[in-house]
Amino acid sequence: MIDRARLGKLLMGTDPRVRRMVAYWAATGVIYVLMIALMQVAVQVGLADRRAVAMLTAYGVCGVLAFAVLVRASAVLGISPWILSVLQGLFAVSCNIWLYTVSGPLREASLITLLVVVTFCTFSLRPRQTMLLSAVSIAGMGIAMWFGVSRDAAHYPPMVEALTFAFASVGLIAITLLTGQMNTLRARLKNQKEELLVALATIRTLATRDELTSLANRRHMNDVLADEERRQKSAGATCIALIDIDFFKDINDRFGHAQGDAVLREFAAAALGALRGSDMLARWGGEEFLLMLPTTQLAEATQVLARMAGAVAAMRLPEVELGRPVTFSAGVTARAAGEPFAETINRADKALYRAKAEGRNRVVTV
Ligand SMILES: Nc1nc2c(ncn2[C@@H]2O[C@H](COP(=O)(O)OP(=O)(O)OP(=O)(O)O)[C@@H](O)[C@H]2O)c(=O)[nH]1
């Protein structure tokens, strides 16, 4: 049995851009098949010459298959998408001009498809490239018509051919001018998309980060806790610590609010440096922080907080001469199985209160 996934990978490749181009060319191939079918009908009803149509059909089928291979191998061969588009456009134009010469009284129909080809190409080509394609189309069409008039003026009346040429040329020139407009529009949309992405990233940062310390903010921490609660309803191996810098008001009063801010920033950096990748520290409010330690026993959590106390005490702030190291008090507790985090935080808060009441610069576990 054929493995459909493997066959798909073989035909389309794995590169999303190549897959998109192969799919696009496959859709184009369907249009070629429909055109071939219509020409067969024209042959059957005696409107087109069988031999001439057979030659054009062979040219079309070979071209479609050759391009399918080229598109599929374009990444390996290093052919850029715009070169492929130009070549595909030129091939389609040549098919249409040939079609004009073999479709007898139906020939005007090939001009419709010629306009469709150029319109199609405006999506993938730059204005200059579309201009080139239109110029080739106009020249090719002119040659085909001149050839018809000079060979068989009875079936290709010169005035009819000249006017048809003029109509088709106006159509092609109009499409070319539209491409310029489309390109401006495309560039504007691209810029707007980039601006929106930047704005979205800023909004995301503002919504999840504390501006002063760059730690997670309370809202984001609450979201993370809610996620955690959903994920491990029965697990209890998460510890929560509430941490509060000691005598912070005193720092503000003695050295000013700006230095207080600097202490908060330094505290955040020092605390983060003492944590593991899986731990998460958030600014819970003012000079209070919440630390979440997933898959951690209480004894390990106490060790982490001791390490953090060491890092905070080692902070050096030349403008803040306290005469003592910066310290913090913390209350830490383990979440009971299935317990809502609100209750765990409540317990940690009570433990923090005790740590403050017992003299500060300590960790109380409950
Ligand atoms: N610089 C600065 N100060 C802040 C900020 N947020 C809160 N504070 C101040 O932090 C101080 C907290 O004071 P208290 O709640 O009395 O706590 P404390 O002085 O640390 O005393 P204990 O917690 O009991 O050790 C207040 O003066 C707040 O104005 C901030 O973002 N920047």
From TrEMBL:
Gene3D superfamilies: 3.30.70.270
Stored InterPro entries: Diguanylate_Cyclase (IPR050469), GGDEF_dom (IPR000160), Nucleotide_cyclase (IPR029787), Rev_trsase/Diguanyl_cyclase (IPR043128)
Cross-referenced SMART domains: GGDEF
Reaction it catalyzes: 2 GTP = 3',3'-c-di-GMP + 2 diphosphate
Name of this chain's protein: diguanylate cyclase
EC number assigned by the record: 2.7.7.65
Source species of the chain: Massilia terrae
Domain of life: Bacteria
Entries under PANTHER family matching the protein: DIGUANYLATE CYCLASE DGCM-RELATED, REGULATORY COMPONENTS OF SENSORY TRANSDUCTION SYSTEM
Record has Heme as a keyword: no
Regions annotated as coiled coil: 175-202
Lineage: Bacteria, Pseudomonadati, Pseudomonadota, Betaproteobacteria, Burkholderiales
Keyword Transmembrane helix: yes
Key words of the record: Coiled coil, Membrane, Transmembrane, Transmembrane helix
Membrane-crossing segments per the record: 21-46, 52-70, 82-100, 106-125, 132-150, 162-180
GGDEF domain: residues covered: 236-366
